[in-house]
Specification:
It is globular and about 55 Å long. The protein has a seven-stranded parallel beta sheet with strand order 3-2-1-4-5-6-11, with helices on both faces. By secondary structure, it is α/β, with parallel strands linked by helices. The longest helix is centred in the N-terminal third of the chain and has 21 residues. Helix 1 packs across helix 7, helix 4 packs parallel to helix 5 and helix 6 packs parallel to helix 8. The chain is built from ten helices and 13 strands. Bound molecules: uridine-diphosphate-N-acetylglucosamine. Uridine-diphosphate-N-acetylglucosamine (UD1) binds next to helix 6 and strand 8.
Length: 306
Protein backbone atom coordinates (compact mmCIF):
# COMPACT_ATOMS: atom_id res chain seq x y z
CA UNK A 1 0.00 0.00 0.00
CA UNK A 2 1.39 3.50 -0.86
CA UNK A 3 2.38 5.73 2.10
CA UNK A 4 0.44 8.90 2.88
CA UNK A 5 3.25 10.97 1.32
CA UNK A 6 3.29 9.40 -2.13
CA UNK A 7 -0.46 9.01 -2.43
CA UNK A 8 -2.29 11.11 -5.00
CA UNK A 9 -4.21 13.96 -3.34
CA UNK A 10 -7.84 14.13 -4.44
CA UNK A 11 -10.37 16.82 -3.58
CA UNK A 12 -13.96 15.54 -3.77
CA UNK A 13 -16.50 18.35 -3.64
CA UNK A 14 -19.87 17.17 -2.38
CA UNK A 15 -18.06 14.21 -0.85
CA UNK A 16 -20.83 13.57 1.67
CA UNK A 17 -23.48 13.30 -1.07
CA UNK A 18 -24.81 10.29 -2.95
CA UNK A 19 -22.06 10.03 -5.59
CA UNK A 20 -19.35 11.67 -3.47
CA UNK A 21 -19.66 9.36 -0.47
CA UNK A 22 -19.45 6.19 -2.60
CA UNK A 23 -16.40 7.67 -4.34
CA UNK A 24 -14.78 8.27 -0.97
CA UNK A 25 -15.47 4.62 -0.04
CA UNK A 26 -13.83 3.42 -3.26
CA UNK A 27 -10.80 5.72 -3.18
CA UNK A 28 -9.85 6.56 0.40
CA UNK A 29 -7.44 3.65 0.83
CA UNK A 30 -5.67 4.37 -2.46
CA UNK A 31 -5.47 8.17 -2.35
CA UNK A 32 -5.35 11.01 0.14
CA UNK A 33 -8.89 12.33 0.05
CA UNK A 34 -10.17 15.71 1.14
CA UNK A 35 -13.91 16.27 1.11
CA UNK A 36 -15.40 19.73 0.70
CA UNK A 37 -19.11 19.74 1.53
CA UNK A 38 -21.60 22.31 2.80
CA UNK A 39 -23.63 19.63 4.68
CA UNK A 40 -26.75 20.66 2.74
CA UNK A 41 -28.08 17.13 2.33
CA UNK A 42 -26.12 14.81 4.65
CA UNK A 43 -23.88 14.60 7.69
CA UNK A 44 -20.24 13.97 8.54
CA UNK A 45 -21.09 10.30 9.21
CA UNK A 46 -21.58 9.69 5.46
CA UNK A 47 -17.82 8.98 5.17
CA UNK A 48 -15.30 7.16 7.43
CA UNK A 49 -13.95 9.18 10.38
CA UNK A 50 -10.35 9.13 9.12
CA UNK A 51 -11.30 11.07 5.95
CA UNK A 52 -10.48 14.78 6.06
CA UNK A 53 -13.77 16.69 5.73
CA UNK A 54 -13.92 20.47 5.39
CA UNK A 55 -17.26 22.18 5.83
CA UNK A 56 -17.53 24.86 3.19
CA UNK A 57 -18.99 25.89 -0.11
CA UNK A 58 -17.67 25.55 -3.65
CA UNK A 59 -18.51 29.21 -4.23
CA UNK A 60 -16.15 30.38 -1.48
CA UNK A 61 -12.47 31.16 -1.20
CA UNK A 62 -11.89 27.95 0.78
CA UNK A 63 -12.66 25.94 -2.37
CA UNK A 64 -9.84 27.63 -4.29
CA UNK A 65 -7.43 27.10 -1.39
CA UNK A 66 -8.26 23.39 -1.33
CA UNK A 67 -7.79 23.04 -5.10
CA UNK A 68 -4.30 24.44 -4.56
CA UNK A 69 -3.52 21.69 -2.04
CA UNK A 70 -4.61 18.76 -4.26
CA UNK A 71 -3.55 17.00 -7.47
CA UNK A 72 -7.03 16.04 -8.68
CA UNK A 73 -10.49 17.60 -8.36
CA UNK A 74 -13.68 15.52 -8.65
CA UNK A 75 -16.51 18.03 -8.61
CA UNK A 76 -19.74 16.33 -7.57
CA UNK A 77 -21.18 19.15 -5.41
CA UNK A 78 -24.26 20.69 -6.98
CA UNK A 79 -27.79 21.88 -6.61
CA UNK A 80 -29.26 18.59 -7.91
CA UNK A 81 -32.99 19.09 -8.14
CA UNK A 82 -34.76 19.92 -11.39
CA UNK A 83 -37.88 21.05 -9.50
CA UNK A 84 -35.89 23.26 -7.11
CA UNK A 85 -34.14 24.86 -10.08
CA UNK A 86 -37.53 25.81 -11.57
CA UNK A 87 -38.46 27.51 -8.29
CA UNK A 88 -35.13 29.30 -7.80
CA UNK A 89 -33.01 29.51 -10.95
CA UNK A 90 -30.62 32.03 -9.36
CA UNK A 91 -29.73 29.72 -6.47
CA UNK A 92 -29.23 26.89 -8.97
CA UNK A 93 -26.92 28.99 -11.16
CA UNK A 94 -24.94 30.36 -8.21
CA UNK A 95 -24.10 26.82 -7.15
CA UNK A 96 -23.79 25.02 -10.45
CA UNK A 97 -22.36 27.74 -12.68
CA UNK A 98 -20.46 30.07 -10.35
CA UNK A 99 -19.36 27.25 -8.01
CA UNK A 100 -17.93 25.27 -10.94
CA UNK A 101 -16.22 28.34 -12.39
CA UNK A 102 -14.67 29.16 -9.01
CA UNK A 103 -13.07 25.70 -8.92
CA UNK A 104 -11.96 25.84 -12.57
CA UNK A 105 -10.29 29.20 -12.04
CA UNK A 106 -8.34 27.79 -9.11
CA UNK A 107 -7.48 24.67 -11.13
CA UNK A 108 -6.14 26.85 -13.93
CA UNK A 109 -3.84 28.78 -11.57
CA UNK A 110 -2.47 25.73 -9.77
CA UNK A 111 -1.23 22.64 -11.54
CA UNK A 112 -4.07 20.15 -11.37
CA UNK A 113 -3.54 16.80 -13.09
CA UNK A 114 -7.26 16.06 -13.58
CA UNK A 115 -10.57 17.89 -13.19
CA UNK A 116 -13.66 15.67 -13.37
CA UNK A 117 -17.09 17.27 -13.63
CA UNK A 118 -20.41 15.53 -13.02
CA UNK A 119 -22.92 16.91 -15.49
CA UNK A 120 -26.36 15.38 -16.19
CA UNK A 121 -28.44 13.78 -18.94
CA UNK A 122 -30.77 16.73 -18.24
CA UNK A 123 -28.65 18.67 -20.76
CA UNK A 124 -30.45 16.83 -23.60
CA UNK A 125 -33.98 17.95 -22.71
CA UNK A 126 -36.69 15.92 -24.41
CA UNK A 127 -34.75 13.58 -26.70
CA UNK A 128 -35.53 13.59 -30.40
CA UNK A 129 -34.07 10.11 -30.73
CA UNK A 130 -33.08 7.28 -28.38
CA UNK A 131 -30.64 5.85 -27.55
CA UNK A 132 -29.03 9.23 -26.90
CA UNK A 133 -25.44 9.76 -28.05
CA UNK A 134 -23.24 12.59 -26.77
CA UNK A 135 -23.76 14.48 -30.04
CA UNK A 136 -27.55 14.56 -29.60
CA UNK A 137 -28.77 18.21 -29.54
CA UNK A 138 -28.55 19.77 -26.09
CA UNK A 139 -31.75 21.60 -25.41
CA UNK A 140 -32.39 21.64 -21.64
CA UNK A 141 -35.93 22.07 -20.28
CA UNK A 142 -34.93 23.34 -16.84
CA UNK A 143 -32.54 25.86 -15.26
CA UNK A 144 -30.80 22.78 -13.80
CA UNK A 145 -30.15 21.40 -17.31
CA UNK A 146 -28.84 24.79 -18.42
CA UNK A 147 -26.56 25.18 -15.39
CA UNK A 148 -25.13 21.67 -15.83
CA UNK A 149 -24.53 22.29 -19.54
CA UNK A 150 -22.87 25.57 -18.68
CA UNK A 151 -20.52 23.84 -16.20
CA UNK A 152 -19.63 21.31 -18.89
CA UNK A 153 -18.96 24.00 -21.49
CA UNK A 154 -16.65 25.83 -19.08
CA UNK A 155 -14.75 22.58 -18.41
CA UNK A 156 -14.28 21.92 -22.12
CA UNK A 157 -13.38 25.54 -22.81
CA UNK A 158 -10.75 25.48 -20.03
CA UNK A 159 -9.32 22.36 -21.65
CA UNK A 160 -9.13 23.96 -25.09
CA UNK A 161 -7.97 27.44 -24.08
CA UNK A 162 -5.85 26.75 -21.02
CA UNK A 163 -4.89 23.08 -21.44
CA UNK A 164 -6.68 22.07 -18.22
CA UNK A 165 -6.97 18.23 -18.14
CA UNK A 166 -10.73 18.24 -17.62
CA UNK A 167 -13.43 15.72 -18.55
CA UNK A 168 -17.15 15.29 -17.85
CA UNK A 169 -19.82 12.63 -17.48
CA UNK A 170 -23.54 12.96 -18.11
CA UNK A 171 -25.19 10.50 -15.74
CA UNK A 172 -28.68 9.19 -16.56
CA UNK A 173 -30.88 8.16 -13.58
CA UNK A 174 -28.51 7.34 -10.70
CA UNK A 175 -29.82 5.27 -7.79
CA UNK A 176 -28.43 3.94 -4.51
CA UNK A 177 -29.63 3.13 -1.01
CA UNK A 178 -28.06 6.43 0.11
CA UNK A 179 -30.61 8.51 -1.80
CA UNK A 180 -32.89 10.00 0.83
CA UNK A 181 -36.45 8.68 0.26
CA UNK A 182 -37.88 11.37 2.54
CA UNK A 183 -36.63 14.10 0.20
CA UNK A 184 -39.42 15.15 -2.20
CA UNK A 185 -36.79 15.55 -4.91
CA UNK A 186 -35.55 11.96 -4.62
CA UNK A 187 -35.77 9.67 -7.59
CA UNK A 188 -38.50 7.21 -8.48
CA UNK A 189 -36.59 4.16 -7.19
CA UNK A 190 -36.25 5.57 -3.66
CA UNK A 191 -39.92 6.55 -3.71
CA UNK A 192 -41.14 3.13 -4.90
CA UNK A 193 -38.97 1.34 -2.34
CA UNK A 194 -40.16 3.52 0.51
CA UNK A 195 -43.75 2.67 -0.43
CA UNK A 196 -43.01 -1.05 -0.79
CA UNK A 197 -41.33 -1.11 2.64
CA UNK A 198 -44.49 0.37 4.13
CA UNK A 199 -46.63 -2.16 2.23
CA UNK A 200 -48.22 0.69 0.25
CA UNK A 201 -48.92 1.18 -3.46
CA UNK A 202 -46.27 2.85 -5.59
CA UNK A 203 -47.59 5.99 -7.29
CA UNK A 204 -46.97 6.27 -11.01
CA UNK A 205 -47.18 9.70 -12.61
CA UNK A 206 -48.76 9.28 -16.06
CA UNK A 207 -49.49 5.92 -17.69
CA UNK A 208 -46.21 4.26 -16.69
CA UNK A 209 -44.99 3.76 -20.26
CA UNK A 210 -42.26 6.39 -19.86
CA UNK A 211 -38.77 4.86 -19.90
CA UNK A 212 -35.57 5.60 -17.98
CA UNK A 213 -32.00 4.31 -17.99
CA UNK A 214 -31.28 3.57 -14.31
CA UNK A 215 -27.61 3.30 -13.38
CA UNK A 216 -26.28 2.08 -10.05
CA UNK A 217 -24.00 4.47 -8.19
CA UNK A 218 -21.37 1.69 -8.21
CA UNK A 219 -21.17 1.90 -12.00
CA UNK A 220 -20.91 5.69 -11.71
CA UNK A 221 -17.95 5.21 -9.35
CA UNK A 222 -16.43 2.81 -11.92
CA UNK A 223 -16.64 5.28 -14.79
CA UNK A 224 -15.16 8.08 -12.64
CA UNK A 225 -12.29 5.76 -11.67
CA UNK A 226 -11.66 5.11 -15.38
CA UNK A 227 -11.63 8.86 -16.04
CA UNK A 228 -8.96 9.21 -13.34
CA UNK A 229 -6.79 6.63 -15.06
CA UNK A 230 -7.19 7.58 -18.72
CA UNK A 231 -5.47 10.60 -20.21
CA UNK A 232 -7.47 10.06 -23.40
CA UNK A 233 -10.55 11.14 -21.48
CA UNK A 234 -9.35 14.74 -21.18
CA UNK A 235 -11.34 17.17 -23.29
CA UNK A 236 -14.25 14.73 -23.56
CA UNK A 237 -17.80 14.34 -22.31
CA UNK A 238 -19.21 10.82 -21.79
CA UNK A 239 -22.70 9.50 -21.26
CA UNK A 240 -22.91 7.50 -18.05
CA UNK A 241 -25.81 5.08 -18.32
CA UNK A 242 -26.30 1.38 -18.85
CA UNK A 243 -27.47 1.57 -22.46
CA UNK A 244 -30.72 -0.15 -21.38
CA UNK A 245 -34.02 1.30 -20.32
CA UNK A 246 -37.15 0.08 -18.56
CA UNK A 247 -40.65 1.52 -18.26
CA UNK A 248 -41.75 3.00 -14.95
CA UNK A 249 -44.54 0.35 -14.80
CA UNK A 250 -42.00 -2.46 -15.17
CA UNK A 251 -39.90 -0.83 -12.46
CA UNK A 252 -42.89 -0.68 -10.08
CA UNK A 253 -43.59 -4.39 -10.64
CA UNK A 254 -39.94 -5.31 -10.12
CA UNK A 255 -39.82 -3.43 -6.80
CA UNK A 256 -43.08 -5.04 -5.60
CA UNK A 257 -41.74 -8.46 -6.59
CA UNK A 258 -38.38 -8.00 -4.79
CA UNK A 259 -40.04 -6.73 -1.61
CA UNK A 260 -42.74 -9.40 -1.97
CA UNK A 261 -45.58 -6.91 -1.61
CA UNK A 262 -48.95 -7.58 -3.23
CA UNK A 263 -50.68 -4.21 -3.71
CA UNK A 264 -52.12 -2.52 -6.81
CA UNK A 265 -50.19 0.30 -8.46
CA UNK A 266 -51.74 3.77 -8.07
CA UNK A 267 -51.84 6.28 -10.95
CA UNK A 268 -51.63 10.08 -10.75
CA UNK A 269 -51.52 12.69 -13.54
CA UNK A 270 -48.28 13.03 -15.49
CA UNK A 271 -45.72 15.40 -13.92
CA UNK A 272 -45.34 18.65 -15.88
CA UNK A 273 -42.00 18.87 -17.67
CA UNK A 274 -41.34 15.10 -17.49
CA UNK A 275 -39.58 13.63 -20.48
CA UNK A 276 -41.11 10.53 -22.05
CA UNK A 277 -38.28 8.29 -23.20
CA UNK A 278 -34.69 8.18 -22.04
CA UNK A 279 -31.92 5.72 -22.79
CA UNK A 280 -28.19 6.29 -23.14
CA UNK A 281 -25.87 5.20 -25.91
CA UNK A 282 -22.60 4.43 -24.11
CA UNK A 283 -20.49 3.41 -27.13
CA UNK A 284 -18.09 6.31 -26.56
CA UNK A 285 -17.38 5.38 -22.91
CA UNK A 286 -17.03 1.71 -23.90
CA UNK A 287 -14.55 2.51 -26.65
CA UNK A 288 -12.48 5.27 -25.02
CA UNK A 289 -12.56 4.19 -21.38
CA UNK A 290 -13.32 0.47 -21.55
CA UNK A 291 -16.39 1.19 -19.41
CA UNK A 292 -18.86 -1.66 -18.90
CA UNK A 293 -21.75 -1.31 -16.44
CA UNK A 294 -21.76 -4.28 -14.07
CA UNK A 295 -24.80 -3.93 -11.82
CA UNK A 296 -28.10 -5.14 -13.28
CA UNK A 297 -31.19 -3.24 -12.15
CA UNK A 298 -32.47 -6.26 -10.22
CA UNK A 299 -29.13 -6.65 -8.39
CA UNK A 300 -29.06 -2.93 -7.66
CA UNK A 301 -32.59 -3.05 -6.23
CA UNK A 302 -31.72 -6.10 -4.12
CA UNK A 303 -29.06 -3.95 -2.41
CA UNK A 304 -31.91 -1.83 -0.96
CA UNK A 305 -33.56 -4.95 0.42
CA UNK A 306 -30.40 -6.13 2.22
C1 LIG B 1 -33.65 12.35 -13.34
C2 LIG B 1 -32.84 13.02 -12.27
C3 LIG B 1 -32.43 14.39 -12.68
C4 LIG B 1 -31.69 14.29 -14.01
C5 LIG B 1 -32.53 13.57 -15.05
C6 LIG B 1 -31.67 13.31 -16.29
C7 LIG B 1 -33.44 12.15 -10.10
C8 LIG B 1 -34.21 12.37 -8.85
N1 LIG B 1 -33.61 13.09 -11.04
O1 LIG B 1 -34.91 13.01 -13.51
O2 LIG B 1 -31.58 14.99 -11.70
O3 LIG B 1 -31.43 15.57 -14.47
O4 LIG B 1 -32.94 12.31 -14.57
O5 LIG B 1 -32.46 12.89 -17.36
O6 LIG B 1 -32.72 11.19 -10.24
N2 LIG B 1 -42.15 8.92 -11.13
C9 LIG B 1 -43.27 8.21 -10.74
N3 LIG B 1 -43.55 8.09 -9.42
C10 LIG B 1 -42.77 8.68 -8.45
C11 LIG B 1 -41.64 9.41 -8.85
C12 LIG B 1 -41.36 9.52 -10.20
O7 LIG B 1 -44.01 7.67 -11.58
O8 LIG B 1 -43.10 8.51 -7.27
C13 LIG B 1 -41.82 9.00 -12.56
C14 LIG B 1 -41.60 10.41 -13.05
O9 LIG B 1 -42.81 11.01 -13.40
C15 LIG B 1 -40.66 10.16 -14.24
C16 LIG B 1 -39.85 8.93 -13.82
O10 LIG B 1 -40.59 8.32 -12.76
O11 LIG B 1 -41.40 9.86 -15.39
C17 LIG B 1 -38.47 9.26 -13.32
O12 LIG B 1 -38.57 10.31 -12.38
P1 LIG B 1 -37.35 10.77 -11.44
O13 LIG B 1 -36.79 9.61 -10.74
O14 LIG B 1 -37.83 11.91 -10.61
O15 LIG B 1 -36.21 11.23 -12.43
P2 LIG B 1 -36.19 12.14 -13.77
O16 LIG B 1 -37.34 13.08 -13.80
O17 LIG B 1 -36.01 11.20 -14.91
Amino acid sequence: MPTQNDMQKILITGGLGQVGSYLVDALHEKAKITVLDNYSSTTREAVPPEVNVIKGDVKDRIAADLVNQNDVVIHTAAQISVTASMKDPLFDAQNNVFGTLNLLEAARRFSISKFIYISSAAVYGDPIEVPITESHPQDPLSPYGVSKLSGEKYCMMYHKAFGLPSCCIRPFNIYSPRQDPGNPYSGVISRFIEKARAGQSPVIFGDGTQTRDFISVHDIVDIITLLLEKEDANGHVFNAGTGNSITVSELANMVLDIFDVDVPVQYMPERPGDIKYSCSDISKARKTLGFEPKVSLREGLMEFAE
